[in-house]
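Deliverable D5.2: sample structural annotation.
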Amino acid sequence: MNQHPEKVFFSRHALEELKNDGLTTLDAINILKSPGARIYTEGEFEKGSYRYRLETTNMMVVVAFLELGDGMVIVTAWDKRRK
């Protein structure tokens, strides 16, 4: 099983935020795969694309889809347990 799908990309900001919270890219990928993850709000249009907050009890990632549906970018992420 591919732990890092080839059509999922990480922004530099997301990589920094994951590291700051002691998380890895695999943690973020697991949010995408989690049956318990939910999008609770409408997408927000920012910097040319709609962004969606996908969250579980412990973690949130913000994703944007690439033009023509060619993949997605994890824009940022954070551990909700850290304040």
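Annotation notes: The first strand starts at residue 8 and ends at 10. The beta strands are 8-10, 38-39, 44-46, 49-55, 59-65, 72-79.
The annotation will be released with the project's public dataset once the embargo ends.
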